[in-house]
Amino acid sequence: MGEPILECRDLRVTFRKGNRLIKAVDGVSFGVEPGECYGLVGGSGCGKSTLARLVTRLRDADSGTVWLEGRDVTGVTGRGLRAFYRKVQMVFQDPVASFDPRKKIGQSIAEVLRNFGLAERTALRAAINGALEMVGLSPEHGERLPGQVSGGQCQRAALARAVAVRPRLLICDEVTSALDVSVQAQIVSLLRRLQGELNMAIIFISHDLSLVRCFTTRLGVMLDGKIVETGPAAEVVSTPKHEHTKLLLSSLFPVPRSAPGP
Amino acid sequence: MARDKVRTRFLVFSALSVAIFAGALLGPFIVPNDPLKADFQMVNQPPSARFPFGTDKLGRCLFSRVVCGARVTIFSSLALVGVIFVFGTAVGVASSYAGGRFDTVCMRVTDIVLAFPDMVLAIAVAGFLGGGLTNAIITLACVSWTKYARLARSQVLALRDQAFIEAARLAGNTGPQIIFRHIMPNAMGPLIVTAALDIGVMMIGVAGLSFLGLGVRPPTPEWGAMLNEGRTYFQQYPGTIFFPGVAIFISIMVFNLFGDSLRDLLAPRQPGETAKEMP
Ligand SMILES: Nc1ncnc2c1ncn2[C@@H]1O[C@H](COP(=O)(O)OP(=O)(O)OP(=O)(O)O)[C@@H](O)[C@H]1O
Ligand SMILES: [Mg+2]
Q1: Residue at A184 is within a domain
Q2: Closest CA to A173 of A90, A229, A89
Q3: What is the tens place of the pLDDT at every residue in A84-128?
Q4: Angle A222-A226-A230 (CA atoms, 0-180°, nearest 5)?
Q5: Is the pLDDT of residue A24 over 50?
Q6: pTM of the predicted protein model
Q7: Is the minimum CB–CB distance between B185 and chain A shorter than 8 Å?
Q8: N or C: lower Cβ tally within 10 Å for chain A?
Q9: What are the pLDDT digits (tens) for B60-99?
């Protein structure tokens, strides 16, 4: 194993909800190798999205450190942050909500290309179309507003926007849970293809262990803000050690209906 | 479709508003008489071919004064709305974006200003600054920027945590770029509607201060000031009150209905609808 592309150590975040303190992320450490697909599984509210926000610098951790390619990126801002996003991108759960409702999809992709200086002004249109083509969309989809394409198409567009910068690491936070089952499969195979073509690492976050295990090389199981079990995907699935993993596996995992929403 | 009706209404009232603006702008060039020229042989005349609305106590043509008065009343209201819109929005956006103590201070100040009845506060400030159109505008601006600050702040807070703002950060935008490219355009709708509805309110403010002698000074024609001038003779010569009053009434009504129809047009966000308007 070489140097990990991303490493986190002892990340912590506490939210205050009324009088209660919620330890959304409670001492999480993990590493991701270049080009690998790392899975993060856990039930609703266990802190997966919060962890993703810490890793992508969308939120500051209360404590802990994040290294990208061996460099401490815990406190980067401004110019350093832009350089960071050149290497780390993220795709969100709700594809429509992740696009500016007033901008055409093509405009949102163009914005990324311009911000990172990835396309000349004259070659912008071709670059947008290239990005759309890569995820199986046509140039015509770029002319539409996010509300005017289907959920699956919108998630493809979100992927196009994220991989347009050719990131080294892509974080997928429940990218399939807003979509129906047949479309989920398409998105997952698209992700696989992109990972191969672009040779990027992926952190695949999901509450669905059956989806994660067929897709990832290693995985971590989260419960209440902690990673309770981690290891090669096949191993964790065949010989689960932690009770929670066994619960997830036996698909008896009781989804708490009254769980506080994100 | 109901949607078409909304659009038609909007077009009608935009056209009427534009007509009033055009009238106010061109007024001084098309009036039959000099609005400032007193003629003591023609005092308090009834409407005639030469003086369509009659004359006032100084023998000035009422029609010319009403038409020329539009300019002062309407354009000072517009300028006022522009000032408070920009200032209030800037305060609201800056305050919600900066957060922390700056936010707290800004919101306390707006609370204090909001706690006073507008006109009472305006009269107090105008009394302090003295009369004159500029001071009247400053006065009204001082007391009416707050609702823009509040509205802009709540808009920004509602937008700030949405996924597309996070996505915009990942897209390499800096803080100011996110504000100007993503937050402001999405927050503008309600602010613009408020501004449109405020044109009428500000007209009442300007005319009201002038009526009280704290705004435009005579002999400049201005609707509120004209009401005041006509007040004493209004029983014998109702025209001196009637014509400027009707002018105020009609233009405020048109601007308010314009604001209303704009709100209806923008209110329900239908993605399919906006797309039609795009080339
Ligand atoms: N901004 C916030 N303020 C307060 N509490 C929060 C905030 N964000 C998350 N939480 C709380 O932190 C915990 C973890 O939330 P998070 O969204 O990370 O969970 P998740 O694993 O992504 O869940 P889901 O599967 O539902 O997306 C939850 O209890 C949530 O209520
Ligand atoms: Mg989540």
Answers
A1: yes
A2: A90
A3: 999 999 999 999 999 999 899 999 999 999 999 888 888 889 999
A4: 55
A5: yes
A6: 0.79
A7: yes
A8: N
A9: 888 888 888 888 888 889 999 999 999 999 999 989 888 8
- Tell me what pLDDT residue B274 has: 45
pLDDT at residue number A256: 53
Q: Which chain B residues are closer than 8 Å to A161 by Cβ?
A: 167, 171
Q: Does a structural domain hold residue A223? A: yes
* Residue A212 contacts residue A48 (beta carbons within 8 Å): no
B181/A111 touch (CB, cutoff 8 Å), yes or no: yes
Q: Whose CA is nearest to atom 9 of ligand 1?
A: A262
Q: How far is the CA of A45 from the centre of ligand 1 (A)?
A: 5
pLDDT at residue B148 in the model: 93
Query: Which has more confidence, B38 or A148?
Result: A148
As a whole-number percent, the residues of chain B with pLDDT over 90 amount to 28
The boundaries of the domain holding residue A81 are 6-98+167-252
Count of domains for chain A: 1
DSSP state of A21: E
List beta partners, residue A23. Answer: A14
Reported residue count of chain A is 262
Of the pLDDT bands very low, low, confident and very high (cuts 50, 70, 90), residue B279 is very low
Q: Which of A48, A51, A206 to mutate to test the pocket of ligand 1 (most atoms within 8 A of CB)?
A: A48
* Structural domains in chain B plus CATH codes: 67-270 (1.10.3720.10)
From the CA of B166, the nearest ligand is: 1
Query: Taking Cα atoms as reference points, which of A88, A92, A87 lies closest to residue A154?
Result: A92
A103 lies in a domain?
no
